[in-house]
Structure to design on (209 residues):
């Protein structure tokens, strides 16, 4: 079966104390791999099994979409973090974010507000549109910016399973730890180096709902 998830890019304890090893273990082994197993069962022997994950995200709905998107979203989430991350990005990226958001702190605030403001389970994203413009979006459940022609550059998982063992109900503390200590700026920069997606939304419309 072609769909796979890569190994974690660091050891399960590497994000501690910001995200503990037990959270990473359950999140990767049970949740992420669980989505993969369900996706495989849903599309086994069907034409969808030959599609790419991105195609499934763009074209499918219901259970196939949910599980395909959650496989993709979690792989992207693990890459979005690195031990000893956070802080300031390289000067080029810092300038780019400052141009788009006013300042790096304004970006941090906007990203944290999106992550804290998503009601229920979902994700917050830094994305690039087809014109090269950067913005912050949030999405519910498994939704992914690729559905709207936007290119994901960074994401945070704000489903409770991402933080409950470490922070209980205090999502904002998890979001602060992610922003201050875990963001993998090199990953953001490498995503920006790839070609922008063609097309994308015609209008700039605030939160992605
Ligand atoms: Fe998750």
């Amino acid at each position: 079966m072609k769909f796979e998830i890569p190994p974690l890019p660091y050891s399960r304890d590497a994000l501690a104390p910001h995200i503990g090893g037990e959270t990473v273990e359950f999140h990767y082994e049970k949740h992420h791999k669980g989505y993969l197993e369900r996706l495989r069962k849903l599309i086994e022997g069907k034409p969808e099994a030959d599609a790419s994950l991105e195609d499934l995200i763009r074209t499918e709905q219901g259970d196939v979409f949910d599980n395909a998107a959650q496989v993709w979203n979690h792989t992207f989430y693990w890459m979005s973090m690195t031990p000893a991350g956070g802080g300031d990005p390289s000067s080029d990226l810092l300038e780019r974010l400052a141009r788009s958001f006013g300042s790096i702190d304004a970006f941090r605030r906007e990203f944290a507000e999106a992550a804290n403001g998503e009601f229920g389970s979902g994700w917050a994203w830094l994305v690039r549109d087809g014109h090269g413009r950067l913005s912050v979006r949030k999405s519910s459940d498994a939704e992914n910016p690729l559905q709207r022609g936007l290119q994901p550059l960074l994401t945070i998982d704000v489903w409770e399973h991402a933080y409950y063992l470490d922070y209980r109900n205090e999502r904002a503390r998890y979001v602060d730890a992610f922003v201050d200590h875990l963001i993998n700026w090199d990953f953001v920069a490498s995503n920006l180096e790839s070609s922008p997606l063609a097309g994308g939304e015609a209008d700039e419309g605030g939160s992605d709902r």
Summary: Residues 202-209 have pLDDT under 50 and may be disordered.
